[in-house]
Amino acid sequence: xxxxxxxxxxxxxxxxxxxxxxxxxxxxxxxxxxxxxxxxxxxxxxxxxxxxxxxxxxxxxxxxxxxxxxxxxxxxxxxxxxxxxxxxxxxxxxxxxxxxxxxxxxxxxxxxxxxxxxxxxxxxxxxxxxxxxxxxxxxxxxxxxxxxxxxxxxxxxxxxxxxxxxxxxxxxxxxxxxxxxxxxxxxxxxxx
Length: 192
Hints:
By secondary structure, the chain is an alpha+beta fold.
């Protein structure tokens, strides 16, 4: 028995479907990938991060977006929904629908067991092709742990991580910071 090849769809077909859909899906290389719902902890961490960044950036020319704004990686054709995206200056969109961002400065992902390898690996590799992208933050939801990547002037990426609630990370490109105690506020974490 021969297997039928999976039908491939174009980015235009994906966008037409996605704009009518009741649920979100990502797109890459002709395939659509359904996104599952987020856990309450995931949602709380995203809310904490957005509120802390919004408070620090509200008087600046930067805008914080959460979960529902689609981002396109133009160089690879990936369409995805990062948990938090920050844009400084005017947001640029893929088309006149103004629902697919192409110029994120900072991207933050809250890790889950099913996505953490992808978020650290292939997805980050694709994000790095975005010219405006300067900082990447990965936040664990099952323990206090934050990974922070910063693009250096020579194009290399510097990495730092912390798992102490007393620490904070500095988002240099934004002139902002995230204290881990704030990121995990009201999150029931396992006892040390």
